[in-house]
C-alpha cells in the first residue's frame, strides 16, 4: 500500500511540473505571436487549466488571437463581450467579433449573429 501512495504522490508532482512547463512553453509561443498558442493560452486562463482562472488574462490573449483572425478566438471574444468576462459588457463589440467569426464559417457565431439581429443587440 505504501508503494501505491508513493507512486500516486510522484504522479501528482510530475503532473504539476509538466503542467507548469507546458504552460510556460505555451506562453512563450503566445508572446512570439502564434495565434493558436494565444487562443489555447486564453482557454487555459478561462478554464483554469494548468493555471489559476484569470478572466482578464483570458480576455487579453483571446483578443490577441482574434485580431490575427483566429475564428474560435473571435467567437470567444464576442462571448466575452456579451457576458462581460474579463472586460466590460459591450454589445457593439460582441456583434463586431461575432460577425467576423460568422463570416469565416463558425456555426455557433452564425447562430449567435442571427439571434443578435433578431433581438437588435449591438446591430445599431
UniProtKB/TrEMBL annotation:
InterPro entries attached to this UniProt entry: ISR_Activator, Sel1-like, TPR-like_helical_dom_sf
Superkingdom of origin organism: Bacteria
Xref: Pfam families: Sel1 (PF08238)
Gene3D superfamilies (UniProt xref): Tetratricopeptide repeat domain
Protein name: Sel1 repeat family protein
Amino acid at each position: 500500500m505504501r508503494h501505491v501512495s508513493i507512486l500516486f504522490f510522484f504522479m501528482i508532482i510530475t503532473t504539476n511540473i509538466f503542467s507548469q512547463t507546458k504552460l510556460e512553453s505555451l506562453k512563450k509561443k503566445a508572446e512570439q505571436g502564434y495565434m493558436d498558442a494565444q487562443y489555447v493560452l486564453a482557454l487555459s486562463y478561462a478554464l483554469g487549466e494548468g493555471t489559476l482562472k484569470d478572466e482578464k488574462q483570458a480576455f487579453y490573449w483571446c483578443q490577441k488571437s482574434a485580431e490575427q483572425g483566429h475564428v474560435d478566438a473571435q467567437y470567444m471574444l464576442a462571448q466575452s463581450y456579451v457576458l462581460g468576462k474579463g472586460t466590460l459588457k459591450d454589445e457593439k463589440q460582441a456583434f463586431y467579433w461575432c460577425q467576423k467569426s460568422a463570416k469565416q464559417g463558425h456555426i455557433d457565431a452564425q447562430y449567435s449573429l442571427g439571434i443578435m439581429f433578431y433581438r437588435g443587440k449591438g446591430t445599431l
